[in-house]
Design goal:
4-stranded antiparallel β-sheet; single chain; alpha+beta
C-alpha cells in the first residue's frame, strides 16, 4: 500500500479510521531496501514520512489522526507526537 498514490491511500484510510472513536492515531509503517529522498508532508491532519536510514533501508510511515476520537488531547500533545516522528 505504501507504494501506491499516498494521497489516495490517506483519503481511503482516514474514512476507516474515523469509524473507531477509541483510536486517536493510527500509524502504518513499511520499509524496503533501497534509496530514496527523505520527505514528509501533511494532508489535512495526517502526515506521510519517508526517510532512508544509513543502512539503506527506506522507512515509510502514514500517521492518521482521528478527529472523531472520544479522547480529547491538546494541540500541543498532537504537535509533540508529530515532531517525534519527523525527519532528523
Amino acid at each position: 500500500m505504501l507504494a501506491r498514490n499516498i494521497d489516495q491511500a490517506i483519503s481511503e484510510l482516514e474514512e476507516e479510521v474515523y469509524e473507531y472513536s477509541h483510536l486517536l492515531f493510527v500509524i502504518i509503517a513499511g520499509k524496503h531496501f533501497g534509496f530514496s529522498e527523505d520527505k514528509s508532508f501533511m494532508k489535512g491532519q495526517h502526515v506521510y514520512i519517508e526517510k532512508t536510514r544509513s543502512d539503506h533501508i527506506v522507512e515509510k510511515f502514514i500517521v492518521l489522526l482521528n478527529r472523531f476520537c472520544d479522547y480529547k488531547v491538546s494541540p500541543s500533545v498532537i504537535t509533540k507526537v508529530y515532531k517525534s516522528l519527523r525527519l532528523t
